[in-house]
Amino acid sequence: MLVERYLESLGSQAIETALHLGEPRPAIVRPTQDPKFGDFQLNGAMPLAKELNKPPREIAEPIANALRQLDAVERAEVAGPGFVNIHLAPQWLAARLTTTLRDTEREGVPVVERPLKTVVDFSGPNIAKQMHVGHLRSTIIGDAISRILAFMGHSVIRDNHLGDWGTQFGLLIVGMREWGSEEALEREPIAELERVYKLASERAKIEEAFAEQARAELVKLQAGDPDNRSLWEHFVEVSRRALDAVYAELGVEFDAWLGESAYHDALPGVVDDLLVRGIGREDDGAVCVFWNEIDGAPKALRKQKTPFIVRKNDGAFLYSTTDIATVLYRRDYFAADRALYIVDSRQGLHFQQLFALMKLLGVAMELEHIGFGTVLGKDGKPLRTRDASGKVTTLTSLLEESKQRARQRIEEGIAEGRLRVQPEEIDEVSRVVGIGSVKYADLRQNRLSDYQFDWDKMISFQGNAAPYLQYAYARCASIFAKGGLDMEVIGPDAEIVLEAPAEEVLGKRLMRFADVVYQAGATSQPHLICEHVYELARAFSGFYTECPVLDSEGVMRRSRLGLTALTARQIRRGLGLVGIGVVDRM
Ligand code: ARG
Known about the structure:
The chain has 22 helices and 13 strands. The chain is α/β, with parallel strands linked by helices. Among the domains are: 3-88, Gyrase A, domain 2 (2-Layer Sandwich); 166-257, no CATH class. The strands form four sheets. Strands 1-2-4-3 form a four-stranded antiparallel beta sheet. Strand 1 and strand 2 form a beta hairpin. The two termini are 32 Å apart. It binds arginine. Residues 121, 124, 126, 161, 163, 323, 326, 341, 343 line the site of arginine.
C-alpha cells in the first residue's frame, strides 16, 4: 500500500472536515526527518492560511484535530510554523502489515494505474572496443530501472543501442586485411579488433593513401558491398559474443538490439526532413541546426553557439542523426510513450539538443536523459580500464576479481566461524556475493555523484554493502530453517502485533516499501531502494537483538515470524529489483 498517498487522501478529507471549503484541497504528506517528531508530516496549512488570511497555526489546529479522529492516526500535533506531525497508530500499522504478509506476489506494492510503454536505452557499448566502466554503470543502472518499472506494471522495452556503425569500420576493414589474425579474432575478439584498429589509425595518420583506402572501404560498406558487409557482420558477431558473456555474468537481458547500424537507411530522410522544414540549414557543406536561429528553441539552447550537426561536410551522418531516427522509430514501431536514456552525464548537451529537436518535430513522446557520474579509482581520478603500463582490465576480469575476493572473504568468515557455507555451495555464494557487491557499490550511490571504486568497502559483511544485506537475508532464512518453517507459507492465523519498541521501528520501516519503490521508479533513482533495504536490515538487527523469535510463544511467536518473513521477502525483492541476488544459507 502507498502509505503517503493514502495519508494524503486522509489529509485532504481532514482539511475539508476542518475548514468546510466545499472542494477538496490537496495535502502533501512526507516522512519526517526525525522520528522524534512522528512518522509523517502534513504540509498544506501554510498556503491555506495565506489564502484564507489567517494565522497558519489557527488553520493547522482543526486539521490536526480532524486527523486525530482517524484509525490510522495515534497522535497529530501542530508544529513549527504550521506543519502537522502525524504519529501512526501501531494497531493500524500492524493490520496493514498482516495484509502485506499474505501478499507474497507483490509485497504490498500496487500496480500502476496508468502503465506507460517505456523504452529503456542502456548499456550501448561500442563494437570493436572494450566495454568501459561507463558502460558498466549504464548497464547496471539501466537494468535496475527496467526491473523497477516492470515490477510497477509499466511495459518496458530494454534496448541496447550498440555503437556498431561509424568511421572506425573503414579502418578495421583495411587493418584486418593487413594485420588481422583470424585465430586471435576467434579467441579474443575485442582485444584483436582493438589491436588492429590501433595499428590502422596510426598508419592512417602518417600515410594519406592508407587513410584514403579506409575511407573508400567505409563508403563501400555503407553502400552495401557484400564483402565488406560480411566482414563487418563478422566483427559485430564476435564482439556480441564477448558482450553476451558480460551480460550473462551480470544477469542482464535486452528485448531489442537495435544498434546504430539499424538506422542507417533512415538517415538521409531525417536530414532532408530537417531541411524541408527549415529547422536545419546548410553551412559550409554541413547540415546543422543553429539554435539561435530557431524561434521555438528553448531558452537554454538559444545561447548555444555550437550547432547540432546532423550531416558533416563530407556527407557522413553522425551520432546525433542516428539518435533522431531512433526516437522516430521508437515512436512509430514500438508505439512508446517514453524513452529513458541511461547515459553518462557528460552527454547532457547532446540529449538536451536531441530532445529539443524532437519537440520541434512534433514528437510527443516523453524523453528523459538519466545521467550518471564517473567511477573514480583509489587515486580519485576516473577509473581506467587500462593501467599505467597499458594493460587492459576488462570488465570480465573485473567481475572475475570480484568473485575471487568474495570467495576469500567467505573463506575467512567460515574459518572464523561467522559464516556457514557448505563446500559445494562456495562457488555459487561467491558468485552471488561478488557480482552483487559490484552492482550494489554502484547502485547505492545517487547516480549523479561520482563514486570511488574500493574493493574493501564494496565486499563487506559489516558496512553498507551487498554482503551485509545478503547476510541479513540468509539470517532470516535460517530462522525459518531452524524452526522447520517455510517463510513463503503463511498460516491463516498469522497476524502481526507490534508491542516492543524495536518491533514498532521494524514495522514502520517495512511499511515504507511500496512508497520507496514508487519513488525510485518515478525519479529513476535505484539508490532509494538500496537505502531502504539497508535501513530495513538495520531495523531487523535491532529487533532480533531485543525480541526472541523462535523462543517466544503463541501470538507473539507467530507475529515475530511474520515480521521476519516480511523482512526477508522485502530484502530479497528490494535487491531483486536492482538486479542483486540472495542465497538462503551463508
Ligand atoms: N554508444 C554510446 C556511447 O558509448 C552510448 C549510446 C547511448 N544511447 C543513445 N541512444 N545515444 O557513448
